[in-house]
Amino acid sequence: DGGITQSPKYLFRKEGQNVTLSCEQNLNHDAMYWYRQDPGQGLRLIYYSQIVNDFQKGDIAEGYSVSREKKESFPLTVTSAQKNPTAFYLCASSIQGTTGKNIQYFGAGTRLSVL
Amino acid sequence: GIQVEQSPPDLILQEGANSTLRCNFSDSVNNLQWFHQNPWGQLINLFYIPSGTKQNGRLSATTVATERYSLLYISSSQTTDSGVYFCAVDLINTDKLIFGTGTRLQVFP
Fold first, then answer.
1. Which of A58, A102, A108 has the CB atom closest to B42's CB atom?
2. Which residue, among A43, A54, A99, would best test binding to B if mutated, counting the most B CBs under 10 Å from its CB?
3. What per-residue confidence (pLDDT) applies to A16?
4. Left, alpha or beta for B69 (phi > 0: left; psi -120 to 50: alpha)?
5. Across residues B5-20, what is the average pLDDT?
6. Is the pLDDT of residue A97 over 70?
7. Judging by beta carbons within 10 Å of its beta carbon (0-12, 13-18, 19+), is residue B100 exposed, middle or buried?
8. Which residues of B23-50 are buried (b: 16+ CB within 10 A; e: fewer)?
9. How confident is the model at residue A99 (pLDDT cuts 50, 70, 90)?
10. CA distance A53 to chain B (A)
11. Who wins on pLDDT, B31 or A20?
12. Angle at A29 between CA A85 and CA A93, to 5 degrees
């Protein structure tokens, strides 16, 4: 089935530890995005990538890092510099190209908690 | 930056009732999307609607871009409609979606 797969569903982080959240898509989409959602809140953009080997900071990039070595994959690392990482993390992808339509499709999310 | 505000913040309905959710945005946008986030957190696209009106079953949406608002109509609501509804706008000359504050809908049998 085509779609966006995020793993793991649940993740626990110890203090001082870096953790990596996986996001894979087989939709052949050009662009991929990472969002953070805190309880009862909307989504905030962490990082996005429009093309392989290129990515841009979103509104809350501090304490996070990403890579885009393959079109299908856009992993997010939550570093120890992120002091309040407990949140729900959502990955999305979109096909833009010449249509100019940024229609985003989302994975099921990863819930990160701090031990 | 652009402000995207949704109203009401919370809505409680009995099954079968109709409702209207509103999304106001403070600047010109390239497109607008409506999403439904189910109780497990999954976000589902409902409409891509930069302007005009679209319908999909019991749901329909209207965007009046010149007046900077969009409306989502839910008719004959069902318990499975429960969750949070977000609108998100895509600014002109950017690739970023700005999400609204959300409307939390609870539908009781």
1. A108
2. A43
3. 86
4. beta
5. 97
6. no
7. buried
8. bebeeebbbbbbbbbeeebebeebbbbe
9. low
10. 17
11. A20
12. 25
Q: Search chain B and give the residue with CA nearest A106.
A: B43
Residue B82 has pLDDT above 80, yes or no: yes
- A contacts of B88 (beta carbons < 8 Å): 43, 104
Distance (Å) from the C-alpha of residue B99 to the closest C-alpha of chain A?
A: 6
- Residue pointed to by tokens 């049998």: B109
- CA-nearest residue of chain A to B93? A100
Look at phi and psi of residue B53 and say left if phi exceeds 0, alpha if psi is from -120 to 50, else beta. beta
Residues of B within 8 A of A96 (CB-CB) are: 95
Radius of gyration over every alpha carbon of chain A, rounded to an integer in angstroms: 14
A40 pLDDT tier (thresholds 50, 70, 90):
confident
Q: How confident is the model at residue A2 (pLDDT cuts 50, 70, 90)?
A: low
For chain A positions 14-53, those within 8 Å of chain B (CB to CB) are 31, 33, 35, 37, 41-45, 48, 50
What is the rounded distance in angstroms from the CA atom of residue A106 to the CA atom of residue A3?
A: 8
CB–CB of A42 and B101 under 8 A? yes
Q: Distance from first CA to last CA of chain B, Å, rounded? A: 41
In this prediction, residue B30 carries a pLDDT of 83
A100 touching chain B per CB within 8 A:
yes
